[in-house]
Write a structure and sequence with these properties.
By secondary structure, the chain is mainly α. Helix content is 60%, strand content 5%. The chain has helices at residues 11-14, 17-37, 45-52, 57-67, 70-78, 95-131, 151-176, 193-202, 218-244, 273-294, 307-333, 339-346, 355-364, 369-386, 390-395, 398-401, 407-413, 423-427; strands at residues 136-141, 144-150, 178-179, 206-207, 252-253, 336-337.
């Protein structure tokens, strides 16, 4: 299980042994309630089972040490104080009927907790995107200054990505909301499909169309694929912030609490430790995905090669995702944005970020694209090499200044506002109310 440092309530509470045994009992009682509805058990049997069930975690564990079978140990301890009603407990079921159906309940409930935190994260990203809709920042490709853009628009890209993740997660939660109560090899030999239908409805699940002794593991793989994508999306934001927090950039900073220390040796340090933690966690989350995919291929109607793996990665992956979303919310809500620094950094590339506009304007004036590109590139390289203003160098070139009849037309090219002219239209694609 995930270490305590990264395990947060309410999601960690889903994965305690006590919660697991309670889910197993939920499934067993739902089946008995179905028996009652179909007149296969006396009325009141389920209520009596629920009242007399003995959920002693330590005793179940002690019994398991002797029997080497967790479900049988669970049944023995839970039914110890029962009378005749114990005959209906686990009747017609195999262990996986209980374990897999209860696991679906756990994953579904964990998914719903994650979904709530993801919804909050999207709202926080939207708020940040709206606030910085017109905040000018230099766009970078390959880590190099490209053209001006909006910091809000940069954040809006993460909004769109997380909205897609939300759609995927909702679908995955719906698909994992399946159970199976179909017996040892899934053929309903000792339990009727109607019992399964009624019992699963009581658990807010639906029957899997066809199962073996276990639920198909592609259902799990789909769910954890959705979680891995959420983690990767958070990592993308974390890496962006890490780059923008470099000393020579310093356009944004992750929050730094009062009394926080960045380095044991260098008192001046404010390190992006939260973003680095999120980056590392995303790697771990994606690594769990391989286990989910490996578990799809089981022998015949089932083996238990998947079981030990799932006991580790399923709780861990859900807790990791929740932790990452929780910290990503804190990060976005408290992100420090240096608008003045963004402006300063635009000026560090000697106005070269306007090269495309110069190129297009020369083409508009009748210069061939090939010739225009050559002219602009020559002057751009000169600006880099001499560390001089690109605009001034261009005006020294007769091939350029001869094409501009008015100095104002030339000056207009070097305005960052031009690059935000369609930002409103992009924002209209989102529900930002």
């Amino acid at each position: 299980m995930l270490i305590e440092r990264y395990s947060l309530s309410p999601i960690k509470d889903i994965w305690t042994l006590d919660a697991q045994y309670k889910r197993w009992l939920e499934v067993e009682v739902a089946v008995i309630e179905a028996f009652e509805e179909l007149n296969l058990a006396p009325k009141g049997t389920a209520l009596s089972v629920r009242q007399k069930a003995k959920l002693d975690v330590q005793k179940i564990l002690d019994t398991e040490k002797i029997m080497n079978h967790d479900v049988i140990a669970f049944i023995k301890v839970v039914t110890e104080d029962m009378g005749d009603e114990a005959r209906y407990f686990h009747k017609g079921l195999t262990s996986s009927d209980v374990v897999d159906t209860a696991l679906s309940l756990a994953i579904k409930r964990a998914g719903e907790v994650i979904l709530d935190e993801l919804t909050k994260y999207i709202a926080n990203l939207k708020k940040l995107a709206v606030y910085h809709k017109y905040t000018i920042i230099v766009g970078r490709t390959h880590g190099v200054h490209a053209e001006p853009t909006s910091f809000g628009l940069k954040i809006l890209g993460f909004v769109a990505e997380e909205e897609r993740n939300k759609e995927r997660l909702e679908k995955a939660i719906d698909n994992i909301s399946q159970g199976k109560l179909s017996g040892a090899v899934g053929n309903y030999a000792n339990i009727e499909p109607k019992v399964e239908e009624i019992a699963l409805k009581k658990l807010n699940l639906r029957p899997c169309k066809v199962s073996t002794q276990v639920l198909p593991r592609d259902l799990h793989a789909e769910f954890f694929s959705a979680l891995a994508l959420i983690g990767s999306s958070i990592e993308r934001l974390a890496i962006e912030i890490r780059h923008l927090q470099k000393t020579e950039v310093l356009e944004v900073e992750e929050p730094f609490k009062k009394g926080q220390r960045g380095s044991s040796a260098m008192p001046h340090k404010k390190n992006p430790i939260l973003c680095e933690r999120l980056t590392g966690m995303s790697r771990m989350l994606r690594s769990y995905l391989s286990s989910a995919y490996e578990n799809i291929s089981l022998w015949h109607e089932r083996d238990i090669s998947h079981s030990s793996v799932e006991r580790v990665f399923i709780p861990d992956a859900t807790m990791l995702t929740y932790y990452m979303l929780n910290k990503a919310n804190y990060l976005v809500e408290n992100l420090v944005v240096h608008k003045d620094r963004m402006k300063e950094n635009i000026e560090k590339s000697y106005n070269l970020i306007y090269s495309q506009r110069v190129l297009l304007k020369l083409v508009e004036f009748g210069v061939s694209r090939e010739e225009a590109y050559k002219i602009v590139q020559e002057n751009a390289m000169k600006a880099w090499n001499e560390r001089r203003d690109f605009k001034a160098i261009l005006m020294e070139d007769n091939r350029v200044n001869a094409k501009f009849s008015e100095k104002e037309a030339f000056e207009d090219i070097f305005s960052p506002d031009y690059y935000l002219k369609n930002v409103n239209e992009i924002y209209e694609r989102f529900n930002l109310s």
